[in-house]
């Protein structure tokens, strides 16, 4: 009898051990996500110049950051910026149709002339930091899209909308600071009509291989009046129409400003090209 009791006890203990092992395996499987869900640990590599904290590493160039604008006066661009409007003339611009840029230049700013067409820079640009200041008419005229409408076209293909969106509704992916038709701004940071507004844009253009296949989509970050409104979004294609696909283009193209039949003003436009080595993944 005693032998039988011991046998039963041993069998029960063995069963408990097996059940415990099975539960342990089950919990382990639940706690560990599948490989596809696990986050890869970043690989730490030495910087191109060698060791970290090397005082002999290349020093960054010294740049005078300039001065911010006020409502009454345009600011001073950074010392390494390409100034696209000097406050006096449109010598750096031309009509998209060909010939001189036929927009109106006043003291310290220029303005669209309805019906004269879009203008573009004579120089082409690639990856860049862009600063643009603009102001819509005051008193305001029209509603929805018919209200202080213009646009900043990066590489002539990707529009950051310019619009009087102050207490004025339209479709959200077409309001001020939208990547037109693709991304709604994170917030509406518009100032009232007539006041100067700023766009600070960081843009990395698309890349194509020799066969014209897209190898890197464009990305853009937009800060509107000091507020982040587009956070490194991936450009889905050209913005002129609905779901316009990318077309193979050169690495550098002109910046374009849109004539949308509204007298929108611009001033203090400058651009800093981002070197290819700092332009994001190839």
Secondary structure elements and their pairing?
Layout: H1 2-31, E1 82-83, E2 93-95, E3 104-106, E4 109-111, E5 119-125, E6 128-135, E7 150-154, E8 158-162, E9 197-204, E10 207-208, E11 214-216, E12 219-224, E13 227-234, E14 253-257, E15 265-273
Antiparallel strand pairs: 1-15, 2-5, 3-4, 4-15, 5-14, 6-9, 6-15, 7-8, 7-14, 9-12, 10-11, 12-13
Quick summary:
By secondary structure, the protein is mainly β.
Question: What does the model show?
Answer:
This protein is mainly beta and 282 residues long. It has a domain of 197 residues: Jelly Rolls (Sandwich). Helices cover 11% and strands 27% of the residues. The protein contains one helix and 15 strands. The strands form three sheets. Strands 1, 3, 4, 6, 9, 12, 13 and 15 form an eight-stranded antiparallel beta sheet that branches. The longest helix has 30 residues. The N terminus is likely disordered.
pLDDT average, as an integer? 88
β-strand amount: 25-35%
Gyration radius, to the nearest Å? 29 Å
| Global shape | globular
**Uncertain ranges:** 2-6
What is the helix tally? 1
Cα end-to-end separation? 80 Å
* Number of β-strand runs: 15
The biggest beta sheet is recorded as: 8 strands, antiparallel
List SSEs in N-to-C order.
HEEEEEEEEEEEEEEE
- What would CATH call the homologous superfamily of the domain at 82-278? Exo-inulinase, domain 1
CATH class of the domain at 82-278: Mainly Beta
Structural class: mainly beta
What is the CATH topology descriptor of the domain at 82-278? Jelly Rolls
Would you identify the CATH architecture of the domain at 82-278?
Answer: Sandwich
Q: Please estimate the helix content.
A: 10-25%
